Amino acid sequence: MATLFTLIPSSNSTFLNPFKTTQHSKLHFATPSPTFKNPLSIRCFRPPETDTPPEIQKFWGWLSDKGIISPKCPVKPGIVPEGLGLVAQKDISRNEVVLEVPQKFWINPDTVAASEIGSVCNGLKPWVSVALFLMREKKLGNSSSWKPYIDILPDSTNSTIYWSEEELSELQGSQLLNTTLGVKELVANEFAKLEEEVLVPHKQLFPFDVTQDDFFWAFGMLRSRAFTCLEGQSLVLIPLADLWVQQANHSPDITAPKYAWEIRGAGLFSRELVFSLRNPTPVKAGDQVLIQYDLNKSNAELALDYGLTESRSERNAYTLTLEIPESDSFYGDKLDIAESNGMGESAYFDIVLEQPLPANMLPYLRLVALGGEDAFLLESIFRNSIWGHLDLPISPANEELICQVIRDACTSALSGYSTTIAEDEKLLAEGDIDPRLEIAITIRLGEKKVLQQIDEEFKEREMELGGYEYYQERRLKDLGLAGAQGEKLPWIGEV
Ligand SMILES: C[S@@+](CC[C@H](N)C(=O)[O-])C[C@H]1O[C@@H](n2cnc3c(N)ncnc32)[C@H](O)[C@@H]1O
After folding, report:
1. Per residue in 254-291, pLDDT tens?
2. Measured distance CA(218)–CA(136) in Å, rounded
3. Atom number in ligand 1 closest to CA 159
4. Pocket test for ligand 1, best of 55, 217, 246 (most atoms within 8 A of CB)
5. SS3 label, residue 98
6. How many beta carbons lie within 10 A of that of residue 435, not counting itself?
7. What is the 290 CA–ligand 1 centroid distance (Å)?
8. ipTM more than 0.90?
9. Cα angle at 247 between 316 and 289, to 5 degrees?
10. Please, which pLDDT band fits residue 428 given cuts at 50, 70 and 90?
């Protein structure tokens, strides 16, 4: 029954689909923190502060020259513990608009299409074309009109896509390791395609070396900064707005992004679009303006996208993949039942720490495990009612099988990690750890806790097998054919 249950990585990426791969690709990464190069002095609205790096001053001057910000702008980029952030220049109340960025300063697939490389980007995936644009602008250096923006972008983040092999080894056994390797492989494949189809044939547009590392840099920038849930926009980089830092550990005051930003019409007849950012919670002058990037992302997703994790227990999740094996003699019937109930041959269940099992997980498991004396339930006569029956235990054999399969899978997954929960907890308690190691420990600890929780839940089910009411008893009761204790009366056959 091993095929009943497989554990695969999951990634609800901001702009990529989930990956199913465990293949390794070559890794090349380094330089974790933002660096500021090219010392230059520029005009800015406020007197330059002595500790403000020249790149930020130049960026600010560029934004003011372009009219994106005015002297009244209530926020300003500043150095914060998380790299660059937006710092309040005055007390800002909740819901106050802190900045507005017109469409002409956005970088999205339309920007690329209208640029010098637009004609060679036709047919590229939106994220690939924006990544190509971004790395080209970086290579263009002083000739790029986006230089002040490109110069404030970090060389990398703590996203696992930038980790060295040694750093990744701390994730041994985790789903995040598989997901990261899958993403890296996908990006490497996209780069190989891009090289063959665009970079080499159009060398005149790319008269410099463009490497896979450059592409990884651009990919990581998009992954950590692009807005993807805006109306009508597949993905868009919005200079200045992308300096917003994630509120570490959830504060109920900080609302989800959908309340914090919007695209609205501006100008004559509202023809021009403007990205507008509102302050989610009152902030005092000098403090950072913070946001929640996405309340629904797991720690693995936060680590992959942004290179950060949170200690809230709901951020810890593990994705179980269940599937109906093609070799199952009832494959067709089971698939039909799954499909009639909005599911398919495979089903993914994100199990969250300290949360109940996802709806439909137990019915799907029972369906996959259905066989033997219970197989009559797969007959077409039951097709309309079967899902309701699967919501509750079907038979001791079926329930025992799902418990065994899940518990075996948990034991096997737990044996893949190189540390125990206690060891990880001790390491975290000691503190003063490298940020990437802290991310790795948080992830593997969270995954193991979820696996342990699943195992305990099914262990309890296993111990209660004798106490459940199964399909036959329920059916007899419904028909008024059960005895006083719910037992089948001796003269009753199969129902
Ligand atoms: C949208 S950018 C924000 C601007 C960024 N701080 C910078 O220096 O350019 C997102 C990135 O900021 C950093 N970041 C944001 N919130 C953070 C947090 N709470 N803890 C650590 N790093 C954070 C991460 O590197 C993340 O990938």
Report:
1. 655 556 888 888 766 667 889 999 988 899 999 999 88
2. 10
3. 27
4. 246
5. strand
6. 13
7. 10
8. yes
9. 165
10. very high
Q: Which residues contact 325 (CB under 8 A, 6 or more apart)?
A: 3, 4, 331
Residue 266: what are its φ and ψ, rounded to 5°?
-140, 170
Strand-by-strand arrangement of the 346-352 sheet? 5-6, 317-323, 346-352
66 and 105 Cβ atoms separated by less than 8 Å: yes
- For ligand 1, say whether the CB of 44 is within 6 Å of any of its atoms: no
CB atoms under 10 Å from CB of 192, counted, come to: 12
Rounded to whole angstroms, the Cα distance separating 295 from 163 reads: 25
Query: Residue 163 annotated as binding?
Result: no
- The Cα 70–Cα 44 span in angstroms is 10
How far apart, in whole angstroms, are the C-alpha atoms of residue 228 and residue 225?
Answer: 9
Q: Whose CA is nearest to atom 7 of ligand 1?
A: 84
Q: Is 186 annotated as a binding residue?
A: no
Domains with residue ranges and CATH for the chain: 54-305 (3.90.1410.10), 316-478 (3.90.1420.10)
- Assigned token pair, 190: 């996209």
The helix (H) or strand (E) run that includes residue 97 is strand 97-102
Instruction: State the CB neighbour count (10 A cutoff) for residue 347.
Output: 20
DSSP class of 418? S
Query: Distance between CA 370 and CA 129 in Å, rounded?
Result: 48
Strands (E), 211-358: 245-246, 261-266, 272-278, 290-291, 317-323, 346-352
H or E element in which residue 214 lies? helix 212-225
Task: State how far the alpha carbon of 423 is from the alpha carbons of 207, 225, 313, in Å.
Answer: 51, 34, 18
**Nearest to 160, CA basis, from 183, 129, 133:** 183
pLDDT tens digits along 21-33: 222 222 222 222 3
> Measured from the CA of 248, which atom of ligand 1 is nearest?
19
Residue 478, classified by CB atoms within 10 Å of its CB into exposed (0-12), middle (13-18) or buried (19+), is: exposed
The answer to whether 84 is annotated as binding is: yes
pTM across the whole model = 0.86
Task: State the distance from the centre of ligand 1 to the C-alpha of 223, rounded, in angstroms.
Answer: 11
Whether 82 lines ligand 1, by a CB cut-off of 6 Å, is yes
Residue type, 43: R
CB 174 within 8 A of CB 87: no
User: In a 3-state reduction of DSSP, which class is residue 199?
Assistant: helix
